[in-house]
């Protein structure tokens, strides 16, 4: 059977860009030739509503309660899906744990603000409870000016977590794209938001397929603001 990569995207605080990251990864994987499904565990169904505005059939986005996650994954694999993104609700430890347990890698978007960074201990507990799956923290919605994104990445690393060398900055293209049922890669393919999203996907897929990025080159992996 063809390998099916499963990525869980979790966050303890809302509004950190979790669904944007989920959909950006899904569309990037689709553009790379994967058959992609997104399971939206969030009762707000932001990802599912996004696909209602979308003209393209793929990626599939399905609102799925966590109790149905195993059945949804089995059904997806039977239909040839080989890349799954699980978008989880914030403030929902049990749903996040169920998603993490089934994931090959966990993506954790973190805004470079104190209120978000203060959730690190709770996120660490969720990861431990779910079996210490490989996790990648991503600084998200960073200002395009200043060094708050870099400072946040440094702090998270000092706490012992793996931080993605790609920083996602706060860019209007994500909002405009979402309004149309698109992602930044589709809305503005040559823009900086699209470039950052693609870099995040490339880093993630290299981890999933066992092809490691060279260490010590974090700066080169970031798009300049």
CATH class: Alpha Beta
Count of beta strands: 6
Shape: globular
Instruction: Compute the average pLDDT.
Output: 89
Task: Note poorly predicted spans.
Answer: 212-225
What does this structure look like?
Helix 1 packs across helix 10. Helix 2 links the parallel strand 2 and strand 3. A six-stranded parallel sheet has the order 3-2-4-1-5-6, with helices on both faces. The protein is built from ten helices and six strands, in the order E-H-E-H-E-H-E-H-E-H-H-E-H-H-H-H. The chain is 42% helix and 13% strand. The protein starts with a strand and ends in a 17-residue tail after the last helix. The chain is an alpha/beta fold. It has a single domain, classed as P-loop containing nucleotide triphosphate hydrolases (Rossmann fold, 3-Layer(aba) Sandwich), CATH 3.40.50.300. The C terminus is likely disordered. The chain is globular.
List the helices and strands and how they pair.
Elements (H helix, E strand, L loop, with lengths): L4 E5 L8 H14 L4 E5 L5 H7 L7 E4 L5 H10 L4 E5 L5 H9 L3 E6 L3 H4 L2 H10 L5 E5 L8 H11 L13 H8 L4 H4 L4 H17 L17
Parallel strand pairs: 1-4, 1-5, 2-3, 2-4, 5-6
Helix pairs in contact: 1-10
Describe this structure in a few short sentences.
With 225 residues, this protein is of the alpha/beta class. The protein contains ten helices and six strands, in the order βαβαβαβαβααβαααα.
């Amino acid at each position: 059977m063809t390998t099916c990569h499963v990525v869980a995207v979790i966050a303890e605080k809302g509004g950190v860009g979790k669904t944007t990251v989920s959909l950006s990864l899904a569309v990037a994987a689709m553009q790379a030739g994967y058959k992609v499904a997104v399971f939206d565990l969030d009762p707000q169904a932001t990802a599912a509503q996004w696909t209602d505005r979308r003209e393209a059939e793929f990626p599939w986005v399905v609102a799925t309660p966590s109790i149905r996650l195993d059945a949804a994954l089995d059904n997806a694999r039977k239909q040839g899906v080989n890349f799954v993104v699980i978008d989880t609700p914030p403030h929902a430890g049990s749903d996040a744990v169920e998603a993490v347990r089934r994931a090959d890698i966990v993506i954790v978007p973190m805004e470079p603000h104190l209120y978000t960074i203060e959730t690190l201990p709770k996120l660490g507990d969720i990861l431990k409870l779910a079996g210490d799956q490989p996790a990648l923290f991503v600084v998200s919605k960073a200002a395009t000016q200043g060094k708050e994104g870099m400072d946040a990445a440094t702090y998270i690393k000092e706490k012992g977590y793996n931080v993605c060398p790609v920083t996602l900055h706060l860019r209007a293209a994500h909002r405009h794209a979402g309004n149309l049922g698109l992602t930044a890669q589709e809305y503005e393919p040559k823009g900086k938001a699209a470039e950052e999203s693609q870099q995040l996907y490339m880093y993630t897929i290299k981890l999933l397929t066992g092809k490691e990025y060279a260490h010590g080159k974090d700066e080169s992996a970031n798009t300049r603001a």
